[in-house]
Amino acid sequence: MIPYVTSGGAGVRLRPLSAAIVLLFAGAHAHAADAQEQSLSEVTVSSSGLALGVSEMTTPVSVMDGDTLVRRREATLGETLEGEPGITSTHFGAGASRPVIRGMDGPRVKVLSDGSEIQDASTVSPDHAVTSEPLLASQIEVLRGPSALLYGAGAIGGVVNVLDSRVPTAIPQKGYEGAAEARIGSGADEKAGAISLTGGSGNIAMHVEAAGRDANDYGVGNGWSGGSRVPGSFNRTTGGSVGLSWIGSRGYLGFAVTQQNARYGLPGHNHDIEGCHPHGDHLHCGGHDGHDHDEHGHDHEGEASGDVPVVDMRSNRLDVRGELLNPFAGFSVLRLRAGLTDYRHDEIEDGAVGTTFKNKAYDLRVEAQHEPIAGLKGLIGVQNSRRRFSAIGEEAYVQPTVTERTGLFLLEEYRTGDWRWEGALRQDWQTTTAQESGVRRSHNGTSLSLGTSWRFQPGYAAGLTLTRASRAPTAEELYARGLHMATATYELGNVDLRNEVSNNIDLSLRRTAGNTTFDVTAYRNRIKGYIYGRTLDALDGVQLLQYSQRDATFTGLEAKLRQKLGNTLSATVYGDVVRARLASGENLPRMAPARLGVRLDARWQAWDANVEWVQVAAQNRITEFETRTPGYGMLHLGVAYNGGKGTPHEWQVYLKARNLTDKLAYSATSFIKDAAPLMGRNIVVGMRVAF
């Protein structure tokens, strides 16, 4: 095997043991405190930039891989991560669900594919899917703090980095390696599967992978007035990738071609609003056809007839990745990440294409890690991207735009005794041009962060991070003007928007070794000139939104505690809460309510099992034109049998049951919470084989 190990940019594959300790799940993988501490040091966070271990980070990081990822992943990235403290999802039916981190979503949460930005249309609207397939992910990281500035100052909420194997970084020892997984679920009659294979010889390695999913409309909990299933909530996806790499003793250079297709429904569309338009600051809607509406303006008669819009999406992407050790004097690693995307989706209504969204974009980043200088270890880099976005048709509420961004960044760390200091600096330039009107807006901003981690006692660490980040407005916030039926809004952009500036403080305390481990983080984020859709008027369930700026404050707490109860049992308690308000005291809309979860894990020989109760509070802190969301509790169960441990052919059979009591529940973060409640009872049976 070629003796090359990636050093941060491409990520180091983690063992299931490490992920279990980091996430404080399935604690029976660890047998002693010293083993736990040793394993933690092996957990490498690729997106940290400096190949740091989780215990070395100054701010919270979630890492999901191995057996934990197999059991946790769902059809979308948002729902896969939703159980982590501080993370929820937008939940737009079954086909589209983006992560919401600390109450922030859209452009404030950047989604990466192994360090390169995923260029789809998911930041434009919550009904647009993220073009990332969880079944093909090898590891998922969620990062906040100084290192997040490496990927763009706009990531005020955080960064989600999805690692995959599409570009090989090593020659398999036996010449080939792979995995296959198949699963079926009862909640939506889902059938899904994935297969990946890497082979190579000499200096050449090749990787092939494919995945597919076929799910019908999903069922909801007992007592929903709309019926037993959500009309139009089906989800059918296929995707695959072919990658090729040259691998040497000092690094690798490779590329991969990936295609992803999806066809999913958009529940909650209200066709009666098609004629809505603004008169100054007021809405005018006409042409109602007499259908029955509920109190939120949803047309259940149309939904029941099956007249639900469908998204037909295709994304073609080319990835180029490379790393070179000791490229030139004074530098230890040179990394390259580049992505070229051709994205398109059609929104089909009554059998005809109503609107077509296109996004042609590239993202390029180069970073170099320098040798220690006066005790400082760090990296410098440059990032450049260009995005050409257009929407044509009935819902073309944003004229075609071109957005160009360039960023320079620097990350440095300094260690002394039990202290580790980390600082980041980034300068961004952005130009956004509306092609029809010719209006051009330029923004630039400087962002910086300083954090420290203090290991004041063996197995304990305290962290403090101060961040000032400047986010430029997006093309949609600047130039939107039109009806957006998926969210029942008429959106008005504002070409005079300036950068929003976030001033954030994070304070954390962790215990990473021993029978009792925990991680507690408190944060406060004061944002000057926060950009949001201010409601000017509402009529028949439609809101007239004007993108505006006001100061806002986000305050929250995230915590997780795990207690070992012998060699086979462990218990975990976790929870989170976020409060977001404008300076005027008005609540921001669609904020996640407080959560508290209790989980019991067991491992005996080759068996793993868990039982979990999650209690979600009612969301009563709402804004004008928003409705209260009732609280709920859900029971989840899981069991797995692991065969072939220690052999080249490991396999696992698993069963997981979510919402076992079939509770009717609604997502406070969703635009269509009343038209698309959360899934009811869902029992999934699956098998995964490594070879």
Treating each run of at least 4 consecutive H or I residues as one helix, how many helices? 6
Number of spatially distinct domains? 1
Q: At the fourth CATH level, what is the homologous superfamily?
A: TonB-dependent receptor, beta-barrel domain
Distance between the termini: 17 Å
Question: Pairing-aware structural class of the strands and helices?
Answer: mainly beta
* Strand content range: over 45%
CATH level 3 topology: Maltoporin, Chain A
- Given as residue ranges, the uncertain stretches (5+ residues, pLDDT < 50) are 1-42, 288-305
Share in helix:
under 10%
> Roughly what is the average pLDDT, rounded to an integer?
87
Largest sheet: 22 strands, antiparallel, barrel
Family: Belongs to the TonB-dependent receptor family.
InterPro entries: Beta-barrel_TonB (IPR000531), Beta-barrel_TonB_sf (IPR036942), Plug_dom (IPR012910), Plug_dom_sf (IPR037066), TonB-dep_rcpt-like (IPR039426)
Keywords: Cell outer membrane, Membrane, Receptor, Signal, TonB box, Transmembrane, Transmembrane beta strand, Transport
GO cellular component, one term: cell outer membrane
